[in-house]
Design brief:
It comes from Eubacterium ruminantium. Belongs to the LytR/CpsA/Psr (LCP) family. Keywords: Membrane, Transmembrane, Transmembrane helix. The chain has about 400 residues and is α/β, with parallel strands linked by helices. The chain has a single domain (about 35-345), classed as 3-Layer(aba) Sandwich (Aminopeptidase). It is built from 11 helices and 13 strands. It has helices at about 5-35, 55-60, 125-145, 155-165, 180-195, 210-215, 225-245, 250-260, 270-275, 310-325, 330-345, and strands at about 40, 60-70, 85-95, 100-105, 110-115, 120-125, 150-155, 170-175, 205-210, 265, 285-290, 295-300, 305-310. A 7-stranded mixed sheet has the order 1-10-7-2-3-4-11, sandwiched between helices. A two-stranded antiparallel ribbon has the order 5-6. It has a two-stranded antiparallel sheet with strand order 8-9. The longest helix has about 30 residues, at about 5-35. The radius of gyration is 22 Å and the shape is globular. The protein starts with 6 loop residues before the first helix and ends in a 53-residue tail after the last helix.
Length: about 400
């Protein structure tokens, strides 16, 4: 006589099978991630500093990662560790509960405080990576902006080029006024990486290859210099994500394989696994540029800088944007740095920064150069364009 099973026992058996399937799937994901991470250059023993424990508490529920795009004439993996200025500095905030991702570009010419073995001093924030690699760069962001960044990802031009080529290029709206500088930068990127590309000779929506897109992301002599350059950089990232999501897994996988040898990161297998588990609910929720309100400032030793006006109020706006923090009070450390910058530059403007709290949705951006910073800033000053003769001779055409 055949033995009968109750519905309850069948349910338990089905649940066990389901659990087994899930375990096998995630085990395969772990193996996949482990294999991919073996391609990267890993920063062993990476540690960061935060201003105080209250900062960590207020950012609980968020994962914050710093992305650095390096302006390195040396495109080997060793150049990822230090000695190169960060051409692009992007703070990525991930809301762990709903998957919202927000990006903030810190303008590379922003005047902030750096604290290293030589002491404390103000200079352009992109110098931090050159002076002390990702550790000093991350610590500088944490100290000046009341952040709790514990991880970073750095990539050089070659990695970006290979990833974009692997997905078949990205569609970007190129303006007439950008064509001249775009082709100048294309020649510069070819010279640096040894990767050939044709120029771009027509405006309008163009499918840019890796070299062309990298050159596009470097243009800073139109509109407001570094302000609109960071918009282009975020447009490139958003276009890459959109293209990979629409191209299928095999294309995305190839792009990952091409880029990872040119990546330097503190993220390990477990970190990547935790991020991968939530990938289906990630949503690009907005982006912006920092500082939101600023003035252009120049000195003989530092060249043309972007000075927060003032740092305290900019940090309040930053926390509202990244972490939905209402009525945030900057730490005493940020308040002290604000005094340093204001005393040096003479810019003391205080008062709430009035903005929409959402930032720019790059899914609709056309790279038209509209400033995403506050309209009260000195937006008609062309003080940060390519022609400045600052001490940071990291742009070949400067």
């Amino acid at each position: 006589m055949r033995k009968k099973y109750s519905n309850g026992k069948w349910a338990i058996a089905f649940l066990c099978e389901l659990i087994l399937i899930v375990v096998l799937v995630f085990a395969n994901i772990k193996v996949y991630i482990s294999n991919k991470m073996a391609l990267t250059n890993h920063a062993d023993g990476f540690e960061t500093k935060v201003n105080n424990k209250e900062v960590s508490k207020k950012q609980k529920g968020y994962t914050t990662i710093a992305l650095f795009g390096l302006d390195a004439r040396d495109q080997t993996s060793s150049s990822l560790e230090n000695g190169s200025r960060s051409d692009s500095i992007i703070i990525v905030s991930i809301n762990n509960s709903n998957g919202d991702i927000k990006m903030v570009s810190v303008y590379r010419d922003t005047l902030l405080k750096i604290t290293d073995e030589d002491g404390s001093y103000t200079t352009k924030v992109n110098s931090a990576y050159a002076y002390g690699g990702p550790q000093l760069a991350v610590n500088t962001l944490n100290e000046n902006l009341d952040l709790n960044i514990t991880e970073f990802v750095s990539i050089n031009w070659t990695g970006l080029i290979k990833a974009i080529d692997a997905i078949g290029g990205i569609d970007i709206e190129v303006l007439d006024k950008e064509l001249g500088k775009l082709n100048e930068y294309i020649a510069n990127v070819i010279d640096t990486t040894g990767i050939y590309s044709d120029g771009v000779f027509e405006s309008g929506t163009q499918t840019l290859n890796g070299v062309q897109a990298t050159a596009y992301a470097r243009i800073r002599s139109t509109d407001q210099g570094d302000i609109t350059r960071t918009e282009r950089q975020r447009t490139i990232i958003t276009a890459m994500i959109k293209k990979m999501k629409s191209s299928g897994w095999s294309v995305a996988n190839e792009a990952i394989d091409e880029a990872l040898p040119y990546v330097y990161t503190s993220l390990d297998d477990d970190d990547m696994y935790d991020l991968a588990k939530k990938v289906l609910k990630y949503n690009m929720a907005g982006n912006n540029g920092f500082p939101f309100r600023y003035e252009f400032y120049s000195s003989d030793s530092k060249g043309s800088c972007i000075a927060p006006s003032n740092l305290n109020e900019n940090v309040v706006a930053l926390h509202e944007f990244l972490f939905n923090a209402k009525d945030y009070t900057p730490s005493s450390s940020v308040n002290e740095i604000n005094g340093m910058i204001s005393d040096e530059t003479g810019f003391y403007e205080a008062g709430r920064i009035d903005w929409d709290g959402k930032g720019t949705d790059t899914s609709e951006e056309s790279g038209d150069g509209d400033d995403d910073s506050d309209s009260d800033s000195s937006s008609d000053d062309e003080g940060s364009d390519d022609s400045d003769s600052d001490s940071d001779s990291d742009d070949s055409d400067e």
